[in-house]
């Protein structure tokens, strides 16, 4: 199982971090050990003093493929959920300063959170997904997939030009503006519309 992530896929988020809006999808990966198992406790990592949440729509790959045409890409994912791509922002800043890869800031154990899976229906495929993140019952991020720079099918096709897609792979499709810091005892809750799909307490 592979975890693909798309960086800077909402223009407002790219701007809030001072990054240029990309001309093609920015892809990075997390190992399978990054995926937090359901009901496991989440502990604030010891190597960071600036842990940031990034709420995202996550796709589940349902079909093996390579060099997938964009027109057929919708056949390769069958469900979505809301998740968090946790980032050690201070670690990332130091790595960026030195021109080094981001893995230590993005790909550590339990840095990828997912909620309950929602199967795609024909209706869901044809309308935007509205999602949000609450921290301690206050909305801190809200987004719609209407604002994606690179939509789902383009992302899936693009990734497949470089990597084989396998059943069970995950794609984090990018985070909207509003990313921010979280600390111990914060409770993070992810929503699809008004429906809660995960709750996570930071210990």
Task: Outline the structure in words.
The chain starts with a strand and ends with a strand. The protein has a single domain (3-201), classed as Fumarylacetoacetase-like, C-terminal domain (Fumarylacetoacetate hydrolase, domain 2, Alpha-Beta Complex). 16% of the residues lie in helices and 33% in strands. The protein contains 5 helices and 14 strands. The strands form 3 sheets. Strands 1, 2, 4, 5, 7, 8 and 11 form a 7-stranded mixed β-sheet that branches. It is α+β, with helices and mostly antiparallel strands and 203 residues long.
Task: Write a brief structural summary.
By secondary structure, this protein is an alpha+beta fold. Helix content is 16%, strand content 33%.
Low-confidence stretches: none
| CATH topology term | Fumarylacetoacetate hydrolase, domain 2
The N- to C-terminal Cα distance equals 27 Å
Judging from the principal axes of the Cα atoms, what is the shape? globular
> What can be said about the biggest beta sheet?
7 strands, mixed
Q: Helix count?
A: 5
CATH architecture: Alpha-Beta Complex
What would CATH call the class? Alpha Beta
Oligomer kind: single chain
Whole-number tally of structural domains: 1
Radius of gyration: 16 Å
Global mean pLDDT = 95
């Amino acid at each position: 199982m592979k975890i693909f992530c798309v960086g800077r896929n909402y223009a407002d988020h790219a701007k809030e971090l001072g990054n240029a809006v990309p001309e093609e999808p920015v892809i990075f990966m997390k190992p399978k050990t990054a995926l937090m198992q359901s009901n496991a406790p989440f502990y604030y990592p010891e190597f960071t003093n600036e842990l940031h949440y990034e709420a995202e729509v996550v796709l589940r790959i349902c079909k093996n493929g390579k060099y997938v045409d964009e027109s057929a890409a919708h056949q390769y994912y069958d469900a979505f959920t809301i998740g968090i791509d946790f980032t050690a922002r201070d670690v990332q800043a130091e790595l960026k300063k030195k021109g080094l890869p981001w893995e230590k800031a993005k790909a550590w154990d339990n840095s990828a959170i997912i909620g309950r899976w929602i199967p795609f229906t024909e209706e869901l495929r044809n309308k935007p997904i509205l999602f949000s993140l609450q921290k301690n019952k206050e909305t801190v991020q809200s987004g719609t997939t209407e604002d994606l720079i690179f939509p789902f099918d383009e992302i899936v096709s693009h990734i497949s030009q470089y990597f084989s897609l396998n059943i069970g792979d995950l794609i984090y499709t990018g985070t909207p503006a509003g990313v921010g810091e979280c600390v111990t005892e914060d409770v993070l809750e992810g929503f699809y519309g008004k429906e809660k799909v995960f709750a996570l307490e930071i210990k």
